[in-house]
Structure formats: structure tokens, C-alpha cells
Fold:
Amino acid sequence: MTAHDYWVLSPAIAMALLALVTVSVDLVTRSMAKVSTVAFLGLSAPLILTLNLWFGWFGDPATAREATGVADLGSALFGTVETDRFALFFDFLLLTVTAGTILASAKYIASERMKDYGGEFVSLVLLSVTGMIVLVSATELITIYVALELTALPVVALAAIHRSKQGVESGTKFFVLSAISSAILLYGFAYIYGFTGSTNLAVIMERLTVLPNDAGVPFGSYAVLLAVIMIVAGFGFKMAVVPWQMWVPDVYQGAPTPVVAFLSVASKAAAFAVIMRIMYVAFGDPALMQDWSGLFAILAAVTMTLGNTLALSQSNIKRLLGYSTIAQAGYILVGVASVPANQVGATFAGAGPQGVMYYLAGYAFTNLAVFFAVIAITSRTNDDSIEGLNGLLKRSPLLAGVLVFGLLSLLGMPPTVGFMAKVVVFGSAINANLTWLAVVGVVNTVIAAYYYLRVIRAIVFEDAEDETKFSADKPVLVAAGVAAIGAGVFGLAPFLLLEFAEQALSILPAIVTGL
Structure:
């Protein structure tokens, strides 16, 4: 490895080292408070290194400058990793989610149940994020696969870490289905390698444009068609997309709530980032775009409809949020399907991908606010049923306010970020000649109102059996409050995230060339 490689990979290296430091602190002190503090403060190192890569403050003086004066990082490790602005956008998002998760988990890992595994819990989270940072930067199929496994395996252990019957069942289901999805993904990679003779995404794109195509066959070849289907299926598991969503409700109900909060946001963001990179870099030809746009449009419609429909009958808040996560994946897929090749009269060709990135960031703040509030509530009540939320407004007004606000953002009520995110992705769908998909999304938003408002009714209007008042522990309350504030600020000022996302997309030629 060269100095440039270390510089480009510095955030991932810092995150891996932080995981080792966390384990060492746990071994030496056995103090969960110190473990949480070291992990939380230690995140400043990868954050500073990520900011350095974005702004080019120091290091790698040989790096060229763009017209904007920002470093053009180039690739590392023989072209297998590209720490460009697209990857850095998701690095910032992942670091934010990780900080919130560690803060909200402070009380949980210090509990009697977790006293022997608190250090392992935090280090596994950090190792999983290390894999995600590499995953969103990977530009080569083997690197993508290895990073994906580094991302998934710690989550398996996290799901079963408290060793309850439900936890072990959740971990086992996640492990088995994750292994199957990884095998399918690997077969897809093998097919595309066999057809093009390369595992590099950019080279795959070059060869697909010159290899002979069969007229009338999607993607110009049945081999490429099969490869794309397998690749989408493999990542569909991580994105919780129908029909690969069957693990979500059981894992969400059985796994520790902090793990579920982390999994619902970080894993989804990383999966969407890598599928966007693969599709736009390896399959970014306009003709190919139109083919996979239709595939994602169908998946979006089915996913949001099934997720919202199955959520209607849920009585457990974590299972309900699991089906909500599936529905939200469908909404995000609307932006993925809105490819530049289909857009008409667009001033910015990347409106669809930009909407995806804005939605993912807004969804992160929203979902974390909801899950952190649920963590605080269930730690006091030991009840994760919807009925257990009855009368919450009287028992804990602050937590009730955060939870209601988060649910309204998931529903898409103004002025939350959830509302603006839906406006952006549905608008990009209309602009990409997918008006029918935007209509399906609006109808599904109306369906979702039933189960979100049902929970809000329980919180605000129903009477609780036990009216004892309680408050949240400070760390989780701070985490939930910051997440809720983020969901509000980025809803009132969406341009903050939209401009950030547009700058990140400036490094993807397939998007900005005005296809």
C-alpha cells in the first residue's frame, strides 16, 4: 500500500482502530461508561479524516485539484476503492448514525443483562460500520463482496448478543437468509464477470457498450439480465425490498432495539449506496438504464404496497416499524427508478439519485428519533406492544412528543423531512415519466396514515393502565432529541441536504452528462 492508499482509506482505518481500542478499554477497565465515552469521542477521528478528504486540508500533496479547489481523490488499492464525494456523503451519514446509536445504547450496554458483552456490542457496531465505509467506496465486485460480508457478520452477532430465545432466533434467521442472499449476489457477480471478463465497474461499463447485443432482449443479453436480477436480489435483502424482506419483522421484534435502530438505517443506507454505484457505473448506458429503471419501478410499487398493507394489522411497535421500514424502502426505490435517461425537461439530470440521497439522510434522522424514543420507553415499561404506549403523553410528555413527531415524519406530514423527501422522490418520478409510480406512492402514503395515526392516537388519546410518570435517561434523550431536531431542520430547510447531495453526485459522470 502506498501513502495515497492510506490517505484515501483513512476513515475506514480509523474506524477499525477505534473498534480495537474499544475492546482494549473494555478488557482493562470493565467499565461500560468508559467504553461508551471512548467510542463516542473516538468517532471524532474518522469524522475529521472524512472532512479532510472532502475539503483537502492536508495530506497527499500530489493530488490534483478540481475547478472548485477540492481534491480529486482518485482511486486506491489498484482501483478497487474510490473515496469520492459520493462515498464521503454516506461516510458522514454512517458516522452520524453510529454516534447516535452508541449514545442511545449507553444505558443498555451498562445493564445487568449486558454487563459481560457491552464492549463487544460497541466494537461490533464499529466493525460493521468499517465494512460499510469500505462498501460505499468499493468500485470492484470482489471488494464489494468482501466489504458486504464485513458489514453483515457483526450484525448477526449483534442480533443475538443478549442470548434470549427471540434474540438467538433473530440472529439465526438473519445469518441464514444473509448467507443465501450473499450466495445469490456472488452468482450474479460471476455471471457479469464471465460475460465481460472484468470485475471493475468502469471496465464492465466499457465492455458492455462494445460487446454484441441481442435485439429485443433486456440488457442486450440473457446473461447480463440474469446477472442484474441476481445482484438486485442480493442487495434487496439488505435494502429490505420485497420479496426479500421476510426477515425484517422477526429480526426487528427479537433483536435488541439499539441493534434494530442501527440496522434499519445504516445497513439500508450502505446497501442503497452500493446498488446506485453499481447501476450507474457498470450499467450506466442510457439503454441499460431504461431496462433496470423498469425493474426498480415494479419493485418500488410492490414493496411499498406490501409493507404498508402488512403493517395495518400489527400490535407490536417494533414489528410495525419493521413493516414501515419495508414500505420506506419502496419509497426510496422510486428515486432509484427515476433515472436520468428517462427524465424530460430536467434542469439537473441527477434529480432521482439526489432524491434518494436526501430521502436516506432524512429517513436516518426520522427513524432514529422514533427508535431512540422506543428504546427509552420500553426500558422503563418493559412493554413493546402498541397498547403499552397508551397515555404516554401524560406519563412522559417529552418522549411522547419526540415519538409523535418521528411518526408524523415517517408518514410524510409537513413540515417534517419525511414530507419533503416524498415530494422530492415523487417529483423526480413524474419528471422521469413515471407518473403512475408517483400515484402509487401517494396512495400508499394514505394507507400508511392508518397505522401511524393509530399509534399516535394511543399515545395522545388513550388512557394508560399505569399512569406513573417517568423520564428517559439523558444519553438516549439527547440522541432522540438531536435526531428529531434534524428531522425538523432538514424538513424546513431541505436545500441544506439537497445541495450537499448534488455536490456528492458531481463525481458520477453517468449522472451529470445530461443523458
In short: The beta strands are 75-76, 81-82.
